[in-house]
Fold:
Amino acid sequence: MIRITVEWTHLGNRLEISGHAGMMDQGKDIDLCCCACSTILYTWCAHLMREEAAGRISFRSQQLEKGFGSVRVTAADGEYIRLKAGFDTILDGIKLLREKYPEAIQIAYINNGRKE
Structure:
C-alpha cells in the first residue's frame, strides 16, 4: 500500500509518500503506480527548488529515499496562493492515480492540524 499524506496549514504544506504498491512483478500496472507516485513527488521537489531560488518559498524539510519521500515548505509573505495553486495541481495527479488504483493508494488529508 502506498500511503500519501497531504497537509495544508495557513503558512504552507506537506506532501509525504511512503510504502510500495505491494506487487513487484515486472511489467505490472501496479509497479507503474509506484513509479508514478515517485515521479509526482520528484516533479514537485524540482518545482519547489525553483520557487526557493526565486525567494517564494522555504524548505522546512525534505527527505527523498527509496520507499519514502516527504517535503514540507513554507510560503514567503504574499506567496501562499501561488504555492497552493502548484500544490493543488500535484494533488490532482495523485487523485487521478488513486481513482485508477484504489487498492494500492491511500490518501490522508490534514487541514490546519485536523484530519479530514
